[in-house]
Amino acid sequence: MAIPVETFFLAPDAQGTLQAQIQQMIAQGILSGRFRKGEKLPSSRKLAGHLGVSRITVTLALTELQANDYLEARDRSGYFVSQNAPEPPAFGAPGPARDTIDWSRALGRRFTGGDTPEKPQNWASYPYPFIYGQTDPSLFDHANWRHCALQALGQKDFQSLTSDYYDQDDPKLIEFIARHTLPRRGILAQSDEILVTMGAQNALWLTAQVLLTQRRTAVIENPCYHALRDILVQSRCHLTPIDVDRDGLPPEALPDHADVIFTTPSHQAPTNATMPLARRKALLAKAAAMDALIVEDDYEFEISFLRAPLPALKSLDSEGRVIYVGSFSKSIFPGLRLGYLVGSKSFIRECRALRASVLRHPPGHIQRTAAYFLSLGHYDSLVRRMGQVFTKRRHAMETALADHGLGVAGRGVFGGSSIWMRAPEDVDITEVEPRLRDVGVLIEPGHPFFYGTNRPRNYYRLAYSSVPAERIAPGIQRLARELENARGTGTDRG
């Protein structure tokens, strides 16, 4: 590996001749461990030009360092850090830097301490990872994604990719969303009514920032997506939680006044309830009477392997009242972090301006790669393949749950990738979860989804997106055993 010439500089207050300063600079780099054995130094010509000194001065310094075994010269290749160079001293780990700032007073706002739980980074090493939002790499079409990425890097597209879009998005991706993705949900939108985001969570954040203030009120479902609640708490708006039932958010339970209603009508998070068509129309009517906006998070609609999903709430909206949030992260892969917002032009204009002040736009190469992956049909093939596999996994999950008599609280009627579970009331899932990890089982405790201080602690979510069908039954067997042990029976049901 070559050492960049930019890492070399002469200290303005250095003492001694230029030759001595250069020797000291390189020797210190080696002794500190910044320059490692076998690494190539810049040529004497390049180093002299960078430092603004004569080439002979640099050459003399390098020759002296070679004589002292700091460097070695190789024919026609230049100078390298010698394999016999002195070893950097073995210092212990440095102590924490002195910090005299009172951060409890210096921090204007705090963003830590939310409800969003941390999932193990090594989840894939567990034999039974029933955690939501992860995918099975074996299902992904890596070859065609790679082909699309190479196509995006081709001469035809490279000029546009290297240019700054400023606040705009890739026109090919926008066109696909407008002409193919949204019509599947019954939504018609113009290009200036669509904004590409860094996943659905970024879309929700943009929405909260644009629509909410400390004086406005937001309605959320209870339970709901915990990251959404964290976002709304950070916005400092007033929060009104509404308990969901078997059909999702009940419009009759809404308060007399609210500014924004956040809902997941097609696939309630986390209960998986689907809002019937009549209730969707009632929700729109109630929002109109309140003069409130609705934010519809339509996650996982693509994963509809049991039956077709109902039309999106946005498709029933004739007033521009509904803001639609979609994402490709669940259906392609989570690390893609690519979502989109659909709403009235005035709203999208403000979201675009806010996004531009934070990150300009999602990376152009990712947008163009995704556009090719979608437009060439690879995405539809992937979704069909996921549906076939998820059908088998869903059947295996339901069979195993029934065999062990575990309580199901909610399951998606058209598909999805998870089942909402309820343990007996005397079981605290937060106490069971660590013991499950010890036997290779990962689950998602349900209490972070609920609002308030007295949250139920016997709910949990089981996802099957990243667990092979043949591992589901053994994993559920271990889960059932630990739940029995938590009740104090000690009964081994497996």
Key descriptive features of the protein:
Aspartate Aminotransferase, domain 1; Aspartate Aminotransferase, domain 2; DNA-binding; Arc Repressor Mutant, subunit A; alpha/beta; pyridoxal phosphate binding; 494 residues; 3 domains; pyridoxal phosphate; 4-stranded antiparallel β-sheet; 7-stranded mixed β-sheet; DNA-binding transcription factor activity
Can you describe what's shown?
The protein is an alpha/beta fold and 494 residues long. It has three domains: 5-81, Winged helix-like DNA-binding domain superfamily/Winged helix DNA-binding domain (Arc Repressor Mutant, subunit A); 123-135 and 380-486, Aspartate Aminotransferase, domain 1 (Alpha-Beta Complex); 139-376, Type I PLP-dependent aspartate aminotransferase-like (Major domain) (Aspartate Aminotransferase, domain 2, 3-Layer(aba) Sandwich), CATH 3.40.640. The chain has helices at residues 18-31, 44-51, 55-67, 103-106, 142-152, 155-162, 171-181, 199-211, 226-235, 277-290, 345-359, 364-375, 378-403, 429-438, 469-486, and strands at 71-74, 78-81, 128-129, 194-197, 217-222, 238-243, 260-263, 293-297, 322-327, 339-342, 408-411, 418-422, 441-442, 444-445, 459-463. The strands form four sheets. The chain has a seven-stranded mixed β-sheet with strand order 4-10-9-8-7-5-6, with helices on both faces. The chain has a four-stranded antiparallel β-sheet with strand order 11-12-15-14, with helices on one face. Helix 14 crosses helix 15. It is globular and about 85 Å long. It starts with 17 loop residues before the first helix and ends in an 8-residue tail after the last helix. Keywords: DNA-binding, Pyridoxal phosphate, Transcription, Transcription regulation.
